Amino acid sequence: MLNQARKLTFLLALVTSTVVSQEKTKVLLDADTANEVDDAFALGLILMDPMVEVTALNATQWQASHWSTTNSMEDSHRLNQTLLGVMGLGIKTNRGGVARMYDWGDQAQHSAAAYEIINQALALKDAEKLNVIALGALTNVASAVFIEPSIAKKIKLFWLGTTYDFEKGVLRRDDFNCMMDQYALSHLLFSEVEMHIIPVSVANQMTFDYKETRLKFENHFLGDYLLKIWDDHIDSGRTRRTIWDLSIVNAFLHPEWMEEVEITTSKDNGDRKIFYYKDFDAAQMREDFFTKINDYERP
Prior knowledge:
Elements: H1 2-21, E1 25-31, H2 38-47, E2 52-59, H3 72-87, E3 93-94, H4 112-122, E4 130-134, H5 139-147, E5 155-160, E6 163-165, E7 170-172, H6 176-179, H7 182-189, E8 194-198, H8 200-203, E9 207-209, H9 210-217, H10 221-232, E10 240-242, H11 245-253, E11 258-264, E12 273-280, H12 282-295
Parallel strand pairs: 1-2, 1-4, 2-3, 4-5, 5-8, 8-12
Antiparallel strand pairs: 6-7, 9-10, 11-12
Helix pairs in contact: 2-11, 4-5, 5-7, 9-10
């Protein structure tokens, strides 16, 4: 009886260990999906991952761009919903702020997206952090922290933005994602949010050739949809694109493919610790992406 009880205890521990090890990693996504082609590619990759639970998909704005649409956030929100429909997924979507943060007073853009971040962060236990992957302007994330400052230390942010010179230690903020909301970036740099950033000067390795992409994707429903986004974009006709956002999504999914370093920003950039991705395996990411898209079936 004693040996049998020990066996049962061992089996129970084994089952429990297996369940825990297979527990999905939760993440909230925040994207300016209608801005460029790369957002849909990156979202497609993480949305199909069986070991990730996407708790919400927020839309963010890119209103300051010279090629922006009348309501960039709304266009991103609709494209988020379309992508989920194509993939057969039922994930909560939220509208974000319609423009960058305000200049003074209550600077926050109050939106469903900002309050989604607040509510999810406040629901966590003390030691837990909310994973957030932001693919565009930081309006929604910074607005959430502005509205409820206590959540800053409960957010682990993965973001594509800035240019960083690793030899000289110079951080520049003149790239697209920064310029779409400088107030948002400044607010987060001077906050307790844990920041993991891939600068555009590193992410630019993530390039795709149109002919190769069409050859790999054709006759797969999701691949065909992503090709349609490439074809229909305002700058359609490009034979090669930088799929920027795929790099930061893979930094979250496969940290082993990344070279990450800790840096200290200058005083005018927060004088704080930030984690920067210095390099990554672009070839492996690209091949993995093609394989996963072609293997994907609607749930």
